Amino acid sequence: MNTGGSYNCHCNRGYRLHVGAGGRSCVDLNECSKPHLCGDGGFCINFPGHYKCNCYPGYRLKASRPPVCEDIDECRDPSSCPDSKCENKPGSFKCIACPPGYRSQGGGACRDVNECAEGNPCSPGWCENLPGSFRCTCAQGYAPSPDGRSCLDVDECEAGDVCDNGICNNTPGSFQCQCLSGYHLSRDRSRCEDIDECDFPAACIGGDCINTNGSYRCLCPQGHRLVGGRKCQDIDECSQDPGLCLPHGACENLQGSYVCICDEGFTPTQDQHGCEEVEQPHHKKECYLNFDDTVFCDSVLATNVTQQECCCSLGAGWGDHCEIYPCPVYSSGQESSWPFPFPEPRFLHLETFWGTGPLPV
Fold this sequence. Notes:
Blueprint: E1 2-3, E2 6-7, E3 15-20, E4 23-28, E5 42-47, E6 50-55, E7 59-62, E8 68-71, E9 84-89, E10 92-97, E11 102-106, E12 109-112, E13 125-130, E14 133-138, E15 142-144, E16 151-153, E17 166-171, E18 174-179, E19 183-185, E20 192-194, E21 208-212, E22 215-219, E23 224-227, E24 231-234, H1 237-240, E25 249-254, E26 257-262, E27 266-268, E28 275-277, E29 285-288, E30 300-305, H2 307-314, E31 317-320, E32 323-326, E33 330-331, E34 334-335
C-alpha cells in the first residue's frame, strides 16, 4: 500500500512482515514452530502460508480453531471389544475380559449375563439369576452340584434306608423297589411291607393261619395233615392202620379222629381208641381145668383172674368158687360146641358151701 513518500505491506494470513535492507516484504509464517500446535496426538507440517496437522494412529483431527489431533475413543464402538470390557487409552484402547457371569455391552462396560434366560442350566430344577452368576433349586430326587450350577441325580439306593425286604433300583430323580416274595410295595412306594396272607380265607383252609415275615404257617388241628401247603385234610386213621380197634372192635373214622365200635362184651376205652372187656361184678374169679363132679372144686388153676386171662391161656372154666362157667370157644365169630374130651360141666350154685373136698350132688 503506497503512502506519501513510502509504502506499507499488509501480509496475508500465514505470512508475516519482514523489514530488511532491501525493504519490507511478507515472508511465510512457520506455524509449526509453535510447540504442540497440533496437540499431543499429531505433528505439524508447514506449507507456504499455512500448515497441516497430521494425526497419529488412534487420533483424529478435531474441527476446531486451531485444529488439533484428539484421541479416538474406540470403546464407543461395540465391535472394539465384543466379548470383553473396553478401556480407552491415549491413541489406543485395551480389551479387558469381563468377570465370569458378565459380558461386554459396548461403551467399555460389562453387563450381567442372565444365564437363566439362555436355556435352563438347572434342569431338572429351577434357575435363579444372581449378579454375575446363578443358583439352582433342584427338583425332588436331585441335588445341586458342588458348584451349585447344575442338578445331579440322587442315588437313593446308596442311602441304605429304603426298600427294606426288597431290591433297590435307582432311576433318574427317583428309585424303584423290587419286593421279595411275601412282600408288597407300601403306599409311598419307598419300602416293602409284609403281606398278611392270613387275610385271604383260602390261605389256610381248615386250620389256623399264622402270619410270619414274608410268609405264613398253616397249623392243622389234631387228626389232620397239611396238603398243598394251604389245606388241612382229615387223616383216615382207619385206612392207615386197619388193626387199630382189633381184635374186639371195628374202626370208624371221624373228622379229626376215630372211634372203636366194640364187639359184644367189650366197651370202648376212655379215649374210644380201643376196646376192653366189660367188667362184671367180682370180675376176677377162679380158673378151673377139671370138671369131674367130685373133685372139680379142687381143680383150681389160678385165682383172681379175669375170664379173658383164664380162657385164653389157662383153663377150661371160670367163675366163683365151685360155680363154673365154661370158657367160650369162637370160630368165625360164633360160639362152638363144647370142645373138651370130658363131659360138659354142670353149673352148680352153692352159695353156702365154702369147704374143700368132694361136693355133694
